[in-house]
Design brief:
By secondary structure, the protein is an alpha+beta fold. The protein is about 20% helix and about 25% strand. Strands 1-2-3-5-4 form a 5-stranded mixed β-barrel. Strand 4 and strand 5 form a beta hairpin.
């Protein structure tokens, strides 16, 4: 079989490293799936997604002049699950799920009133920033003050 860029083929996982997995596509032809191409979600530990000897479907991303084959498992998946960072659009479909970030929190785009101008948003940002800096200074001053009051002074 002749391998070409864009093809989706089955292969067998022959090795796993911390940065990716090696997949044998046909005898004598092995490609690599980078860890970022393993799943449509964030992958911290590749061994949670793949095992040696497992058969997987992969898409051929590129074939280098040196013969190195770059593969993707997530791009071989059906289209709807390829973009985990697509914003949630709402809707009444119960089958539609909100995408999650790697730490499990739901992600939604920030909501801004459409009538806000850049100047309004900048003003609001400055105000919020000033409040946070003020709160931080107060917290630091209270910590410094309590450490000075509590102990005996050296003589």
């Amino acid at each position: 079989m002749s391998l070409e860029v864009g093809m989706i083929v089955e292969g067998k996982v022959t090795g796993i490293t911390k940065f990716g997995a090696f997949v044998e596509l046909e005898p004598g032809k092995t490609g690599m799936v980078h860890i970022s191409e393993v799943a449509a979600t964030f992958v911290n530990d590749i061994k949670e997604h793949l095992k040696e000897g497992q058969t997987v479907k992969v898409k051929i991303l590129s074939i280098g002049e040196d013969g190195k084959i770059s593969l993707s498992i997530k791009k071989a998946l059906p289209q709807q699950s390829n973009n985990p960072h697509r914003p949630y659009r709402g809707g009444s479909s119960s089958s539609q799920q909100r995408p999650h970030s790697p730490n499990g929190y739901e992600w939604q785009p920030p909501r801004q009133p459409e009538s806000s101008s850049f100047e309004d948003m900048l003003s609001k940002f400055k105000q919020t920033s000033d409040e946070k800096i003020s709160n931080l200074k107060r917290a630091n001053e209270s910590r410094r003050g309590s450490s000075r009051r509590g102990g005996s002074s050296p003589k």
